Amino acid sequence: MLSKRSSHKRPRFFLHPGYVLTVVILCFAAYCVVVPGTLPPSKRSSKGILDQKSKSTFKLKSIYRHGVGVNHRWHQRLEMTPELISKAGTLYQETAVQMQGDEGSEPLWTNNAEYATSNPFDVEFALGKVPLTLKRMKQRDPDYMEAYISGETYMSEAEAHAMWIDDDVVAPNITDRDTVISLALMSSNAYVRIPQTGDWRNVTQPWNETEPEDFGWDGDGIRGHVFYNEVENIVVLSIKGTSAQGLPGSGEDETTGNDKVNDNLLFSCCCARVSYLWTTVCDCYVKSYTCDESCLEKELMRKDRFYSTMIDIYKGVLEEYPDAAIWVTGHSLGGALASLLGRTFGLPAVAFESPGELLASKRLHLPFPPGLPSYMEGIWHFGHNADPIFMGTCNGASSSCSLAGYAMETACHTGRVCIYDVVNDKGWRVNMFNHRIHKVIDEVLLGYDQAAKCVEPEPCVDCYNWDFIPSRDRKSSSRLVTKTRSSAKPTATTRTTTTTSSSTCVGRNWLGFCTKYDL
Ligand SMILES: *[C@@H]1O[C@H](CO)[C@@H](O)[C@H](O)[C@H]1NC(C)=O
Ligand SMILES: *[C@@H]1O[C@H](CO)[C@@H](O)[C@H](O)[C@H]1NC(C)=O
Ligand SMILES: *[C@@H]1O[C@H](CO)[C@@H](O)[C@H](O)[C@H]1NC(C)=O
């Protein structure tokens, strides 16, 4: 822990003028000598956010934004230049002044004096690292994984098992409180506004359409903030789904349609058909508590939905940093997407207050290692038990979530859960306001002396009262079910049907792999 220095309100990771002056470059004729100055003030902890000695810090390098829905062809990147960082800092300070005294508005960053900053885009984060043996797929480049998930890859059982390797990787030290707080701040950084600028570059050429207004920003879409540690060659990709901030209780106006559609698609039992009054987000509802599973799967994988969009962003990051280790993080929907991305490509992922994403992981047929689902995984879900979205109690016709048009019905997480018991420790009541990232940072992550312990989640089933039928229209659902992978379960038979087969999957094991076909 850092000692508070009341005489000095600057945060410890804000570059103190003292640091700047301690490196003096002396030039005599043609020779320049760099004279290292004194060390930072002695009170600074070496494991703090600013790791001055090794310079082994993560800095924001670029931001991706990707449209969804009709704008899904738009994918752009913005490089963080010194001018932009300085402009963004000015905008941040202006907004902060405007928001002062604005009752009920969420702080833009954190109120904690230790972690406050005058420019969130200039912060250098130091993250603790630990070696981790991660069970992941041997082959996991985007092309391969896309084929795998769409079911275009098939393999024998032995091959399927051989796909999984124990990889020694470096992962964030999630037992370290400072590291967890830093990752949460990186997740919250994805919410902070940046100035309107024309410097966005097209990652993919968006054909001949005119640029939509503010996609991936105030409007629909996904943003990815790329932090890079050049000393250790590690990238942290922080994912933001716009809806998280617009959830009920965030104090902001309603979000746009696509976010709600995607949230309801990912975290509801059946296209958010909560009652006959609801406009469903997809057409998979068959009849009372009966839903078409292959229809749901097809909907989730659509190119204009969040999952596919996020993979596009990941591809962009891979192109930028081909040899780097990549970690992912995010809050709420961003956290759930981080977890889905981590599972797809075998990346360490740290999510904050994310809704249950086990159901979506299965519907997307993401790879689960053979054995226990959370065995040797690098996925961690931090959250507290007074957040209805994290706990999966954000449902029921009269809940505040439903009233705002959200059907977040899932509760089950994959990987490990790290839960702060604020209900008992602090007497909190379950409330949507407790979902906000800054409330979580200021009062939970900073409010405890230690990071929550991460454990395997209790056995958990979502949507148990629903009946998911393989397909109500078998001919039209061939895309998802005709191709085969072997099951990772030793007892399952391996099928090798061809892509043109019209067979339909009528049974899946818990890994989501098809085990029974109706030819
Ligand atoms: C991880 O963090 C904990 C808590 O700060 C610390 O005790 C431990 O030594 C760290 N592990 C490594 C490998 O640095
Ligand atoms: C991105 O693509 C759009 C549509 O083709 C085009 O209008 C715009 O100028 C491009 N932006 C840049 C920076 O090239
Ligand atoms: C491109 O232009 C054509 C012809 O004007 C139009 O029909 C089409 O909708 C436009 N957009 C795309 C994505 O092709």
TrEMBL record:
Main subcellular location: membrane
Residue ranges occupied by any Fungal lipase-type domain in the UniProt entry: 295-342
Mode of membrane association: Single-pass type II membrane protein
A Pfam family the protein falls into: Lipase_3
Keyword Lipid metabolism belongs to the record: yes
Compositionally biased spans, kind Low complexity: 483-501
Region (Disordered): 479-501
Subcellular location per the Swiss-Prot or TrEMBL entry: Endosome, Multivesicular body membrane; Prevacuolar compartment membrane
Top EC class for this record: hydrolase
Keywords per UniProt: Autophagy, Endosome, Glycoprotein, Hydrolase, Lipid degradation, Lipid metabolism, Membrane, Signal-anchor, Transmembrane, Transmembrane helix
E.C. code: 3.1.1.3
Xref: InterPro entries: AB_hydrolase_fold, ATG15_Lipase, Fungal_lipase-type
Signal sequence coordinates: none
Catalytic activity: a triacylglycerol + H2O = a diacylglycerol + a fatty acid + H(+)
Bilayer-spanning residue ranges: 20-39
UniProt cross-references to Gene3D superfamilies, sorted A to Z: alpha/beta hydrolase
Record's function text: Lipase which is essential for lysis of subvacuolar cytoplasm to vacuole targeted bodies and intravacuolar autophagic bodies. Involved in the lysis of intravacuolar multivesicular body (MVB) vesicles. The intravacuolar membrane disintegration by ATG15 is critical to life span extension.
Subunit details: Binds to both phosphatidylinositol (PI) and phosphatidylinositol 3,5-bisphosphate (PIP2).
The family this protein is said to belong to: Belongs to the AB hydrolase superfamily. Lipase family.
Protein name (database record): Putative lipase ATG15
Phylogenetic placement of the source organism: Eukaryota, Fungi, Dikarya, Ascomycota, Saccharomycotina
